[in-house]
Amino acid sequence: MKLYLSVDMEGITGLVDQTFVDARERNYTRGQKLMTDEANHVIEAAFQQGFKEIVVNDSHSKMNNLVIERLHPEAQLISGDVKPFSMVQGLDDTYAGAMFLGYHSRAGRRGVLSHTMIFGVRNMYINDQPIGELGFNAYVAGHYGVPLLMVAGDDETAAEAEALIPGITTAVVKRQISRTSALCLTPEKAGWLLREKTKQAIENRKNVKPLTPPENPVLTIEFANHGQAEWAGLMPGTTIEENEPVVHYQARDILEAYKAMIVMTELAMKATFC
Q: What is the active site of this protein (predicted)?
């Protein structure tokens, strides 16, 4: 059996503000170590539960944060960018399940360092369903018939996952106090929890259904300002709402919608606030 792990950074225990998740900041190397350690706890537990191959996709920022020389020796790592499918690069129908570690809640919601892809996104939707990184990535897994077995992060992230996917296992390694503070488990206690929850998720995998995406989905992104929408609207096939920073894209399937989202958010980052 093969297991797919997408590992973000904001949802790792002890990581509560930008100094831990920005490579230019003083706590970043601490964040890398904690991120890699959490991944290793899940990898080790999954191997013990019978998985034979585990692929880890570094899913934060420039996607080169996991310390490969500290990673479990039997895991394989997808590192770096540009990756056509970003946080779910390499995921396909050969996997028996997926797990998302270090994840955070979507833009506009409570939760530690909550956002959706870039800080200029206010809301994102697939058809009328509000969606964040967690949900969008789960839809891609569902496109391939792969169930999302576990999500690890703060309590708000766990609630978001449980609302989307009945029966999913969640591992809460910290509880948000504000967007930049949390009540955190120690790394040792978080490791114990992650190993136990990984075991639980694998034992429960037959009770979790893939999150099936809609056919011909409409992607809608509401940006923070109109300049961002103008940049995103340069992509062929998009339409901008009149007098609103909202851009729509009619996709053939969820994979095309995902690629469109990557292009639109990358373009939107070209806008400035002054």
A: 115
What are the binding residues for Zn(2+)? 8, 10, 60, 104, 133
Residues tagged in the binding site annotation: 8, 10, 60, 104, 133
Instruction: Give this prediction's pTM.
Output: 0.97
41 is catalytic: no
Same topology between domain 2-118+130-207 and domain 218-269: no
Buried b / exposed e over 72-94, threshold 16 CB at 10 Å, is beebebbeeeebebbbbbbbeee
In terms of phi and psi (left: phi > 0; alpha: psi -120 to 50; beta: otherwise), the region of 78 is: beta
Q: Domain 2-118+130-207 is in which class? A: alpha beta
State the catalytic residue, choosing from 41, 72, 115, 143: 115
Domain ranges in the chain?
Answer: 2-118+130-207, 218-269
Quote the DSSP letter at residue 253. Answer: S
**DSSP-based three-state secondary structure for 248:** strand
Q: 63 by DSSP, 3-state: which?
A: coil
Please give the CATH superfamily to which domain 218-269 belongs: Dipeptide transport protein (3.30.1360.130)
Residues in the chain: 274
